[in-house]
Every structure is written in structure tokens, then in C-alpha cells.
Specification:
With 413 residues, the protein is an alpha/beta fold. The protein contains 16 helices and ten strands.
Length: 413
């Protein structure tokens, strides 16, 4: 079976309000409710509802022949429940068709896999529980935040019982190899690894509306011609993109919805490829070899590493300060503190602190609500300082209210 595997990442962070030094210790409300509400509703209108309806229409037309997969972060689900229930209902209707595989990840799209194994497993478990609660399906495939992967992370994910993991087909890892095969983890070969075809993914996600691109305009027929050029022995083309590509990053006026609507028919008519989910690819194919990834890779920026989030002193300081709370948080049972601990770990907060320039810098600025990386850092650290105070107060009260041991009176005769 030769397959096209479509995977869509759905994520929205809880963006922070302007939180000043004088708020620390006094005001524990961290989030920009207006901005979060307006963005989730805008994306629901421009992307989630119309694209979900388009996919449902394709499923009705082609039945089991057309399949896709999603990861929907817990923070995105929480915002849908809070601000845009129509979006959540739409995703539930799409998943109910039976043609959609839901993929697990960390609950709030965090970088914890790089820092703490136990916390990582708890966050993945929480995400799986949320998916099962709302969609009636428990994920068996996994993708880490921003497709961050190395051999040890793959081993951790295998220990949790997942059978296949999605990550980037980075050139510096593959060398002469092709991403269009199934691979396995270098430490635990039972963990199968699907690699993103970054060229065919980025043609849709980034270049689709770029009129200076030599291949503009991109049509379904042109895209299928590229698929046909893939060698006959290559088994799977993995197209992994942000779901917000459709209608939000690439506006409807670019023709992105028309492209996606026409693509299945063009593939069925002109190629021997089928659509498959990650689990189906992993079940039908055997890995051709292990993929060795000694240092973390991701799907971000030209380097395809973790420098988008942990590439300068600001990011490193914020990251280390945040995870210095790990041991303390284990003793906290306050829902509001635990919620804020989760949301502050979201990778976007570190992304906003990135100081890259040129092409990657423009992409960072597009997604950044702050005027500068330094202001993103200061705002985050002010919020984190308040969270530290709340945790310490909670633990102090816990210690103060701890039952004292019974006093035994000893008398002598």
C-alpha cells in the first residue's frame, strides 16, 4: 500500500495579558481574555468550521477512501469550551465520521520532554484522558510538541505504549535517505517513526500564496504530478501542517480551500496512492531501518532543531526558572495553580522570546503578540514570579495546617 498521510496540528496558546511588576503578589489573573477570545473565534470562523465542513464533505463523497489525522492540544480544546463551543462541536462531528485518527501529545503543547520524564508522562496522560472524554477515542499514535524528537524521547513514548510517532524528516538527520518510508526508533525498534516530507508539507503551509514562488499558483493537478514523481518503491508521503494554514495563514481568497477540495479526486485519478492514518501506515508497513537522532529535532525554522524556543539566554533563563518549580508543584493540589502551571509551560511563550532574524525571524514576528523578544521575556517572568509566590504561600499554609503528632506525657515516679 502506498499512501498519503495527512496530519493536521490544532493548537491555540493562552496568551498573557500585559502583566507589570507591581501586579506581582497582588493580581493572579494572567491571561488576555479579549485577545484569546477574539483569536479563537476568528480562527473558528475562518478555519475550523469551513475546513471541518470541507473534510466532512470529502468523507461523505469518498467514504473510507479518504482519511486524515489530527492532534488537538488541550489548551486549544479548553479555549473552544470556554469561548467557541461551535468549534468543538464541529470537530466532534468530524471525528464521529470514523475517518479521523486523533494523535496524542502533551496537554498544553509544552517542551517538558526536554526536561522531566515524569512530568512529560503526566501531561501526555492528561491529554489522552481529555481526548477520550470528548471524542470517545483514546490515541495510539503520538507527536511531541512541534514534532520535537530524539532517540530518548522516542524511547519514552514507546514505554508509554504508543506504537508510532510523528516527527520531522530533517535533512541533517536523513542525509541521502528519503522521508517517504517508515522508520523505527534507534533505541526501541518497536516504536515506529513517520517522517514529515517537509518540502511537500511546506509547499502548502508556507509557499501556497507566495506569488514570487516559481511554482505559483499551486494547483491540485500540479501537486499530484509531484506525487507521481516519487520513486515507485517509496511507500508513504507524510504531509504534516498546522490546521490554521487553511483560511487563517493562507486566506480563503488564495484558493487554499479549493485546492484541498480538489486534491483527493486528483490523487485517486492519477496515482496509485491511497489516504491512510498514522496507525494504518504503521500497521501495514515494516520499518526499513532505524533513524538515529542523537540531538533533538523539530519542524521549526531552517535548522529544524529546538533553537526556536531554547536558542538564547532569555529563553534558557525562563525555561530553567519555570522548571525549577517541578518538585514544589508535586505537593500542590490547588486547581488554579495547577492550571497556570500547565499553561505557562506552553511552548509559544518561549517562541515569542526568539531573537532570530531574516526569513525565520519574519515567521517569528508573524506569530508574536509582543513588540520585542525582551518584552515577551519580561512579561513572562513577571507572571512566573507571581506563580512562585502563590506556590510558596500554598506550601507554607500546607505546612502550617499539617496535623501535629500527639504529645505523649511521660511522668516519673
Amino acid at each position: 500500500m502506498r499512501s498519503v498521510c495527512f496530519f493536521f496540528q490544532v493548537h491555540q496558546p493562552y496568551r498573557l495579558r500585559t502583566y507589570r511588576f507591581f501586579d506581582i503578589g497582588d493580581n493572579h489573573h494572567y491571561y488576555d481574555e479579549y485577545l484569546n477570545r477574539s483569536i479563537i473565534n476568528r480562527v473558528t470562523e475562518h478555519c475550523y468550521i469551513p475546513m471541518n465542513n470541507l473534510l466532512i464533505g470529502l468523507i461523505k463523497k469518498y467514504g473510507k477512501k479518504f482519511k486524515v489525522s489530527f492532534s488537538i492540544t488541550g489548551s486549544a480544546i479548553d479555549q473552544m469550551q470556554q469561548y467557541a463551543p461551535a468549534a468543538l462541536k464541529s470537530f466532534q462531528e468530524l471525528v464521529a465520521t470514523g475517518n479521523v485518527e486523533l494523535v496524542a501529545e502533551t496537554y498544553s503543547h509544552t517542551l517538558v520532554a526536554l526536561k522531566d520524564k515524569d512530568e512529560f508522562k503526566q501531561q501526555v496522560q492528561k491529554h489522552c484522558d481529555k481526548i477520550e472524554e470528548l471524542f470517545g477515542k483514546r490515541p495510539t499514535s503520538f507527536t511531541n510538541t512541534e514534532m520535537i524528537y530524539d532517540d530518548k524521547i522516542g524511547e519514552m513514548v514507546a514505554e508509554m505504549g504508543f506504537k508510532v510517532m510523528l516527527t520531522e524528516g530533517a535533512k541533517h538527520i536523513l542525509g541521502w535517505k528519503s522521508p517517504n518510508y517508515l522508520y523505527c526508533n534507534a533505541i526501541n525498534p518497536r516504536m515506529k517513526v513517520l517522517l514529515r516530507n517537509f518540502r511537500m508539507s511546506d509547499d502548502i503551509a508556507f509557499r501556497f500564496s507566495e506569488q514570487k514562488w516559481s511554482e505559483w499558483p499551486l494547483t491540485a493537478d500540479k501537486y499530484v504530478q509531484w506525487i507521481k514523481q516519487v520513486g515507485e518503491n517509496q511507500e508513504t508521503i507524510n504531509v504534516f501542517v498546522d490546521y490554521e494554514t487553511f483560511g487563517e495563514h493562507q486566506w480563503s481568497t488564495t484558493g487554499i480551500f479549493d485546492f484541498m477540495k480538489a486534491l483527493p479526486a486528483a490523487i485517486f485519478k492519477n496515482t496509485d496512492f491511497e489516504f491512510a492514518t498514522p496507525s494504518e501506515v504503521a500497521n501495514h508497513l515494516q520499518p526499513i531501518s532505524a533513524i538515529h537522532v542523537p540531538q533533538p529535532i523539530s519542524w521549526a525554522d531552517e535548522e529544524r532543531d529546538t533553537t526556536a524556543w531554547l536558542g538564547n539566554d532569555l529563553q534558557d533563563e525562563a525555561f530553567d526558572s519555570l522548571y525549577s518549580l517541578t518538585e514544589k508543584i508535586k505537593h500542590v493540589d490547588d486547581p488554579s495553580i495547577l492550571r497556570d502551571w500547565q499553561y505557562l509551560q506552553t511552548s509559544d511563550h518561549f517562541y515569542y522570546m526568539c531573537t532570530k532574524w531574516f526569513t525565520d525571524g519574519e515567521v517569528h514576528k508573524y506569530f508574536n503578540p509582543y513588540p520585542s523578544p525582551y518584552e515577551a521575556f519580561m512579561n513572562f517572568m513577571n507572571v512566573l514570579s507571581d506563580l512562585m509566590i502563590r506556590i510558596d504561600r500554598y506550601l507554607q499554609n500546607l505546612e502550617k495546617n499539617k496535623p501535629k503528632p500527639d504529645t505523649i506525657l511521660v511522668t516519673t515516679i
